[in-house]
Amino acid sequence: MSETSESGRGVFTAVVSANKQIGSSFYKLRFMFSGDGAKAFAGFAPGQFAEFDLSAVALPSPEKIPPELLDTSGRSVLLRRPFSFTDVAVHGDKTTADLMYCVVGPASLRMTTLSAGDSLSVIGPLGNGFRIPEGKKYALLVAGGMGTPPLQHLAKVLSSDYKDIEVTAFAGAKTKTALPFEGRMDEISQQLGFSLREFAQFGIESIVATDDGTSGYQGFITDCLIEWLDNSDAAAEDIIIYSCGPEAMLAKVAEIAASKNIDCQISMERRMACGIGLCQSCAIECKVPGSNETVYKMCCQDGPVFDGREIIFSFQHEK
Questions:
Q1: pLDDT value for 106
Q2: Is residue 165 domain-shared with residue 108, that is, in the same domain?
Q3: How confident is the model at residue 1, as a pLDDT?
Q4: Is 159 within the bounds of a domain?
Q5: Does one domain contain both 145 and 258?
Q6: What element of type H or E holds 205?
Q7: What's residue 141's pLDDT?
Q8: 295 CB contacts (<8 Å, ≥6 apart)?
Q9: Pairing of strands 205-210, 217-218
Q10: Is residue 131 part of a domain?
């Protein structure tokens, strides 16, 4: 069953191929689309998203529910949930999509019970993804926590379609267990700068930071970004920064980019109930170029990827 609009966006059925746990609370789902869904998602760009209907998915057995979610696990999941993909691949007349999720509430908890053969209703592709301007020589991918999925997808596209661009990945989290990756590389690979398999598979070096120092550099990943830029001889116009993660980190990344006059694209996160701009629950305040005025844009429709220079981050009003 599918329903497609003229834009290619539509309501499709996705069939689960696999659901693998990759950490204490992290999982990776693989979906298969066929027919019109395969055609629509074949062109899914890094940074776009899809809305999943999880209302009919069952809860796990009580003993498998984390204690901190026992009180809220029984809540109904009425609204669709938005997710970006870590990878999209075309296999003949089929398209597969990989989705990473963290168990944080009733909806994601239900997702842990999905198994091969199960199907879900999906609306997509939605939103505007990352753009790759001409003339760039360096791309810096800065991920915080669960901000890594669209940047993993972008890493694949850059490595396959933009071989002249040198890519470096930065990944930060509060602690080692909060890094949403399947495993670290061996000691030699780490010494060479290929710490994360998800990026190393594309020949991309990675830099890791944790607040408590349990993995990689102790401190914020934005400190590593500043150090890279300070030590690089690359011209500002040759660099582009892509970032996704907690808003405080995104604000710092945008500030760093602006201070050095470097192009920066930010993938914002908001609760997106409809995904198509109707409910207007995901408004983001943005600057109007050449004036002191601001306008509100919809994260789902105008984003989720924005130019770092235009965003007024929510906490900046408090300063």
A1: 94
A2: no
A3: 47
A4: yes
A5: yes
A6: strand 205-210
A7: 98
A8: 285, 286, 288
A9: parallel
A10: no
Question: Cα–Cα distances in Å, from 264 out to 54, 67, 75?
Answer: 34, 40, 39
> Two tokens at 197?
């398999």
Report, as ranges of residue numbers, the positions in the chain whose pLDDT lies below 50. Answer: 1, 6, 188, 317-319
- Tell me whether residue 302 is in a domain: no
Both structure tokens of 134:
């001409």
- CB neighbour class for 207 (10 Å; exposed up to 12, middle 13-18, buried from 19): buried
Whether 245 and 151 share a structural domain: yes
Give me the amino acid identity at 31. F
First vs last C-alpha separation in the chain: 50
User: Residue 247 corresponds to which amino acid?
Assistant: E
Q: Which amino acid is at 220?
A: F
* CA distances in angstroms from 12 to 31, 41, 125, 156, 252, listed in the order given: 12, 10, 10, 25, 38
Planar angle of CA 160, 171, 319, nearest 5 degrees: 120
For residue 94, the cross-strand partners are 34, 91
> Count of residues for the chain?
319
Output the domain CATH number for residue 43: 2.40.30.10
Burial code (b: 16+ CB inside 10 Å, e: under 16) for 294-307 equals eeebbbbbbbbbbb
Do 264 and 144 share a structural domain? yes
Integer Cα distance of 296 and 218 in angstroms: 37
Residue 173, C-beta contacts closer than 8 angstroms, at least 6 positions apart? 144, 145, 179, 180, 210, 211, 215
Residue 318, CB half-sphere, CA atoms under 13 Å: how many? 4
319 in a structural domain = no
Structural domain that includes position 35: 3-126
**Distance separating alpha carbons of residues 85 and 44, to the nearest angstrom:** 9
